[in-house]
C-alpha cells in the first residue's frame, strides 16, 4: 500500500507540473472531514497542438465526431491552420434504421415528476405489436427508476410476455456480463432494459442482429450542473462565446448518438430509435 500511495503521489505531481496556462484548474472538495484535490484540464487543444504541429500527419477518427466544429475546437483549437476534415458516408443502408422523434413531452429536471406517466405510456405504445429486445436510456438512475416503475405496472395490460431489466449503480464486470446474457437471443415477447445514458450499456457493446431491435432515449443527455461544469461553461463562453453548448449540450448529445449507435452494428442489422424530448424541435438540436 505504501508503494501504491507513492506512485499515486508521483503521478499527481507529474500532472501538476504540466499546468502552464488557464486551460488547467485545481478543484478542492471538503466532505465528511476529508479534503479531495482534483486536477482538471478544461481544454487539451493547446497541449495536443504542441504535440502534433510540425510532425507527421495525425488522424482522429470516430463515429461520433459530430458536430465537427465542436471536436475540432477541443482537439486542435479554434484557429488551427493545418486541420482537414474527411467525412466518409456510412456503409449502412439508411433505411435500416427508423428514427422516430417525439417532441410533445418535456423531460427537463423540473418536469420529470409531472410527465413520468406520459413517458411510460409513450414507451409502451411504441412496443405494442413488436417482439424482440430493446433498451430504454435515461439521463439518471433516479429518472430511470421513476419511469420504469410505471412501465412495469402497466405494460402487461397491453403487451403479453414482457420482461423488464434495470441497470444498477456500480455494476462490476461480472454483473454487466450477466445483464448482457439476457440479450443473447431474440425474445418471443418483449425484453426491455432500463439503462442510463453514458453508462455501461450506452457505448462499447455489440448486440448484432436480433439481439437488439431498438432503443428508446428519454432526454438529451444534459450533464448535471455542478461547480466544475459551470467553470467549464464559463471558460468556453469566454473562448468561443457558446459555453453552455460546449459544457452541456454537445457532451449530452454525444451520449445520445452513442446510444442510437447500439442498434445498427452490421450492414444487415435493422431497428428503430425513438427519441423523446420537447427540445428536439429547437434549432440547436435540429
Task: Describe what you observe in this structure.
- With 286 residues, this protein is of the alpha/beta class.
- Helix content is 37%, strand content 18%.
- The protein is built from 8 helices and 8 strands; from the N terminus they run H-E-E-H-H-E-H-E-H-E-H-E-E-H-H-E.
- The strands form 2 sheets. The chain has a 6-stranded parallel β-sheet with strand order 3-8-7-4-6-5, sandwiched between helices. Strands 1-2 form a two-stranded antiparallel ribbon.
- Helix 4 crosses helix 5 and helix 7 (227-240) crosses helix 8 (243-260).
- The chain is globular, with a radius of gyration of 22 Å.
- The N and C termini lie far apart (52 Å).
- The model has no long low-confidence stretch (mean pLDDT 91).
Features:
6-stranded parallel sheet, 286 residues, globular, alpha/beta, 37% helix, 8 strands
Strand-helix topology:
Layout: H1 2-16, E1 24-31, E2 34-41, H2 45-52, H3 68-75, E3 97-102, H4 112-127, E4 132-138, H5 141-158, E5 162-166, H6 173-181, E6 190-196, E7 214-218, H7 227-240, H8 243-260, E8 271-276
Parallel strand pairs: 3-8, 4-6, 4-7, 5-6, 7-8
Antiparallel strand pairs: 1-2
Helix pairs in contact: 4-5, 7-8
Structure at a glance:
By secondary structure, the protein is α/β, with parallel strands linked by helices.
